[in-house]
Amino acid sequence: MPKALRTTPPAAEQxxxxxxxxxxxxxLKRSSKRRSIGLRIDDKGLTVSMPLxxxxxxxxxxxxxxAAWVVNKLQGWxxxxxxxxxxHEGAQLDYLxxxxxxxxxxxxxxxxxxxxGNELCVFLPLIGTDKQLERDVTQWYKDQxxxxxxxxxxxxxxxxxxxxxxxxxxxxKTQWGCCTARGSxxxxxxxxxxxxxxxxxxxxxxxxxxxEMNHSSRFWAVVHAAxxxxxxxxxxxxxxxx
Length: 242
Ligand SMILES: [Zn+2]
Hints:
Zincin-like, 4-stranded mixed β-sheet, binds zinc ion, alpha/beta, 2 domains
C-alpha cells in the first residue's frame, strides 16, 4: 500500500532565512492551537510559532515585516552573551590580571605548555587537535593555580595563626571559593586569571571561615585583620563575572 501523500508537517524544525540582509537560523514550531504567527527572541535565538497549516507565504510576509526588529533584537542578545575564549595562535589569555599571547608550535617535540615572558608556548604533535590544545592550556592553568594558591594559603595561614588546610581546585560555576566542614578549602581554577590581590582576598575569606563558619561581624573582623583592603577587594571581585 502506498503511504498517504499528505504528511503532517513536523512540530518543530530548524530553518534559515534572509532577513534585512542577514542569514538567520530560527526554530519553527507548528501548533493546532495557534491562530496567528508569533515571534519570540531569547538566549536560544529566534523561535517562530505558527498555526498548523499556515501557508509559507504568510510566514514569509510576517518575517519580512518584522525583519529589522528581529535582526536588532538578536544582535542585542549576541552582545550580552559571554564569548568563550577561542584558543588559536596569537589568542590573548588572562593570567594573574595580565594577558599572555598564545604561541603554538606543531612538531615532533611535544612538551607541556611553558610560559616565556608574556607568551604561553604550547607544543603539539604535527597532527595536534584543538582538543589537545585546550587540554594543554587547561593543564598549564591548573599547575600554576595549584602552585600559587598553595603558596598564598601557606602565607596567610601563618599570618592568621592557623594550620594550613588542604586545598583543592574547583570548577564551580558560581563560587570563587568555599570551605568544607572538614576544614579543607576549594578555590576556583578561574581565580588564576585574576590579579593576585583578588586571589589573596578569596584565600583570606576562606581561611577566616576555618575560624568563623558564618558571615558575622566577628568573621569580617578576622578578614580585616589579615586583609585591610577587603571591602574594596570584595567590591572589585563582585564586578568580575565568573
Ligand atoms: Zn564566605
